[in-house]
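Re: that backbone. Tokens:
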């Protein structure tokens, strides 16, 4: 059974931070996609940070949604960054077309 949580906060500089936790599988696909699209299209912060530090795995559907959020952010002048992915996830994101400068590994 997969277990995940999506937390959203705003940092002092106005960036919106989305922190998925656990295994983000198909059961969270709609929720994550809607959250990303709403944040980019409606909230329109200067920066959207998807903090992947606590993500154990990201299924292909959610991986595609996260990658697409980068392009959507470009269309709406929102800088989207994917912070702290593990090595495997970072490779999957760049293979999915996410520019390496968007994937920030600590």
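Recovered sequence:
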């Amino acid at each position: 059974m997969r277990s995940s949580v999506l937390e959203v906060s705003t940092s002092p500089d106005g960036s919106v931070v989305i922190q998925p936790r656990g295994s983000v599988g198909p059961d969270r696909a709609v929720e994550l996609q809607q959250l990303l699209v709403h944040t980019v299209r409606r909230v329109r912060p200067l920066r959207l940070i998807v903090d992947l530090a606590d993500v154990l795995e990201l299924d292909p559907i959610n991986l595609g949604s996260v990658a697409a959020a980068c392009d959507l952010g470009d269309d709406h002048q929102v800088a989207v960054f994917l912070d702290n992915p593990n090595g495997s996830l970072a490779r999957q994101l760049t293979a999915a077309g996410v520019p390496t400068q968007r994937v920030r590994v600590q």
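The chain has a mean pLDDT of 93. The radius of gyration is 12 Å.
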